[in-house]
């Protein structure tokens, strides 16, 4: 099997897993949904999601919007840097494997101009990749596939530790 076919198979499995999780999220009662929303002090904070997979961006946007965040999207690192200047987000969710400019380079460039918190979200979940991401300045690293609830909790944690909008430095 070629690496392209292997990658497509992996993406397909991730997509199915996300769809299943999205379906179970839809089944959560409205009263229970209120219990899993973000900390009220973080409502309305801006999150920039940089990922080349439209279905994954859609899932993340839905999950974070329900948690009270304002979500902005970019399809690759170059668009992500443009959005960083325009939006001045409170946090960036960054994929690693993207066309045009990968997440490693995007992370490096963000760190040259800003201290905005970065949560790397990647299929590369091995220890070396996690350490590399943290060495480049990411605040956290979450391997795909992931639970939407865990993503929200990690964002809350990172924002709670940084406490001040880093958009002032961009």
Model description:
The chain has 170 residues and is α/β, with parallel strands linked by helices. The chain has a single domain, classed as 3-Layer(aba) Sandwich (Rossmann fold). Helices cover 52% and strands 14% of the residues. The chain is built from seven helices and five strands; from the N terminus they run ααβαβαβαβαβα. The protein has a five-stranded parallel sheet with strand order 2-1-3-4-5, sandwiched between helices. α5 links the parallel β3 and β4. α4 packs parallel to α5. It is globular, with a radius of gyration of 16 Å. The C terminus is likely disordered.
Fold blueprint:
Layout: H1 3-26, H2 30-35, E1 46-50, H3 54-66, E2 70-74, H4 77-87, E3 91-94, H5 103-113, E4 118-122, H6 127-135, E5 140-143, H7 148-162
Parallel strand pairs: 1-2, 1-3, 3-4, 4-5
Helix pairs in contact: 4-5
Name the features.
7 helices; disordered C terminus; alpha/beta; Rossmann fold; five-stranded parallel β-sheet; globular; 170 residues
Write a brief caption for the model.
It is built from seven helices and five strands.
For the largest sheet, list the strands in their spatial order: 2-1-3-4-5
* CATH fold assignment: Rossmann fold
Runs in which pLDDT lies below 50 for 5 or more consecutive residues are 28-40, 164-170
Radius of gyration: 16 Å
Anisotropy-based shape: globular
**CATH class group:** Alpha Beta
Instruction: Give the overall pLDDT as a whole number.
Output: 79
Order of helices and strands: HHEHEHEHEHEH
């Amino acid at each position: 099997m070629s690496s392209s076919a292997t990658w497509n198979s992996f993406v397909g499995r991730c997509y199915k897993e996300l769809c299943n999780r999205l379906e179970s999220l839809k089944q959560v009662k409205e009263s229970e949904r209120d219990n899993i929303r973000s900390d009220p002090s973080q409502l309305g904070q801006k999150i920039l999601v940089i990922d080349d997979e439209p279905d994954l961006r859609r899932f993340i946007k839905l999950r974070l919007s329900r948690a009270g965040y304002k979500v902005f999207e970019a399809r690759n690192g170059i668009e992500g840097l443009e959005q960083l200047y325009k939006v001045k987000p409170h946090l960036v969710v960054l994929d690693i494997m993207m066309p045009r400019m990968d997440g490693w380079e995007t992370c490096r460039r963000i760190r040259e101009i800003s201290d905005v918190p970065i949560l790397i979200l990647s299929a590369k979940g091995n220890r070396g990749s996690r350490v590399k991401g943290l060495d480049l300045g990411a605040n956290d690293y979450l391997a795909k596939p992931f639970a939407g609830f865990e993503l929200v909790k990690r964002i809350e944690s990172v924002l709670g530790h940084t406490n001040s909008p880093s958009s002032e430095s961009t």
